[in-house]
What we know:
Elements: H1 2-9, H2 21-34, H3 45-55, H4 61-77, H5 80-90, H6 99-108, H7 117-125, H8 139-155, H9 161-168, H10 180-183, H11 187-204, E1 214-217, H12 221-245, H13 248-258, H14 264-271, H15 274-284, E2 287-295, E3 300-305, H16 330-339, E4 347-349, E5 355-356, E6 362-363, E7 375-377, H17 378-383, H18 387-396, H19 400-409, H20 431-437, H21 439-443, E8 446-448, E9 453-457, E10 463-466, E11 471-473, H22 477-493, H23 498-501, E12 510-515, E13 521-527, E14 532-539, H24 552-555, H25 557-571, H26 578-583, E15 589-590, E16 593-594
Antiparallel strand pairs: 1-9, 2-3, 2-14, 4-7, 5-6, 8-11, 9-10, 12-13, 13-14, 15-16
Helix pairs in contact: 1-7, 1-8, 3-4, 3-5, 7-8, 8-9, 12-25, 13-14, 16-19, 16-22
Amino acid sequence: MLQAFLATEDHKFYEHWGMRPVALATAVLKAVVTLDLHPRGASTITQQLAKNLYFGPQRKLTRKLCELLTAIEIERYYSKDEILEMYLTQTYFGAGAYGVGAAAATYFSKSVNELGVNEAATLAAIPKSPTRYNPLQNPQNTLVRRNLVFSRMEAVGFITEAERDSLEQTPLPLHPSLESAYEGIAPYFTENVRQELNQLGKRHNFDPYQDGLTVYTTLDARLQACAERAVAKILPELQDKVSGIYNNSQLKLRLKELYPDSTTASIRKLANNKRLADSLAQSEMPVELAFVALDPNNGHILAMIGGHDFEVTKFNRATQAIRQPGSSFKPFVYASAIDKGLPVSAKISNEELVVTLENGDLWAPKNFSDEYGGMVDLRQALAKSLNVVSVRLIREHTTPRDVATLARNCGITTKLDPYDALALGASGVIPLDIVGAYQVFYTLGVWSKPIAVTGLDDQYGQTIEQFHNERKVVMSEQTAFLVQSLMRSVSDHGTAASLRSKYEFREPTAGKTGTTNDNTDAWFIGFTPDLLAGVWVGLDDPSKSLGRGQEGGKAALPIWAEFMKAAYETMQYPPSEFQDAARRGDGRNLRGIRWTGHVRVHRRAH
Length: 606
């Protein structure tokens, strides 16, 4: 096993101190000569470990330098054997398999100690591109690269020429586990579960990669596939629009930064290369997303996507990103005001507003439409997402501190600054948190902590632990019902009306769009009688805009709509209304309040 990886990735691993100076210099020289914006190659195993742990696979000169410095530090603090072990247990092998132990079980139904040279070489072929060289999906590609591994093993003396010739004639030794095809469909979800298992392993003293565990998760493969298709359909359209923002002048400036010694004529020639321009625009401004679908009855995570491509970046924006929610936060402002006695029929001024801040500065919140005047009730105000009304609510009918407390009780874990701007979603939230918080408007006041793992068995089938998520009453039934009613107007004739007019989704829906200043964040979170889902779209750099007109209803809502349409077609949910869901509730009481959601049973997924 070790020989296959050393020959393929770093045959001088035990001789260098984290880098190979000659190989690195050759790669840098090639990048300069060919004007390659994305240098590749020359990475030692230690550098690859640094990339996997801290940086992700983006290929930029600055990123390479960071990897190099980190690799040197790793070499200072760990032995070679420890580094190699970390590399082999952290590397992604496709099909949801992290580490050689999981990969051996996934592709061969064996433990690492049972692998022969053919199987070891097959695994060593995969990490360069886990999708392209996935032996279950692309066996011919894998076969070619596996034979390259044999050639490298022969070149460094691990096998003889005769052994290489014989091994190259053998087929791929595949004997996949029954679960392997299932596990590969949701890499961000799987990574989230893997991290959770690492923590559980410390508590229960087990090795999640070697101990043959059976993990029961909440993922619904059918809904995950619906989500993947929706993103694949809509996200490229958004990327094209964002890439168009990257105009010729910006392109030339960036090229000049990358190649300061190039002449003006050379820069102009590079800028006219459309393929290069598109590639640079996408690398500089990649559109990212977070998508989460929950069972609103119990907080079970049914589908999750944390970015545009798991192979490009393993950073899970659904669980790790902190972004301003904009107007998608407003339901909590309205709930706090209603809970204090404000009737839904109350009329609130929609006149322009100037607020004096604590430091003496003046703040004039603006409506998105820049239209003002008259008095509006809460239904009109939320449907049209009127900012000045939301600010008046938090100033005159509740307080920023009370709104922050309510939101925290609903599962928001990030810091919420108790100022007037909280009315417009100015404090950052984690997408999974705020999607989970919307449960309270479905269940009429009960919040369940979102979970991904429901049970864990050891290799003998004995239960290690069963997981029951935290549940609590956080809002009165009446308040939650009234806010749910207001949110239904958003999709029927408000900022999310295209859900009906353009996407022709007819199921009862309560939700809210969200957009931040300069269209840097776009949101839509909503639920039907059967599902709760939320979408965030934006760029990782919060200073960069999605572009003119790319607010929540146009950038995030389309993904939500395509997902829901596919989900209803796939799952064949029976026609229902929200009140039907309440009637079908199991009648249990939680601290005196009926838990009103209906229950769906999911097949436990291994």
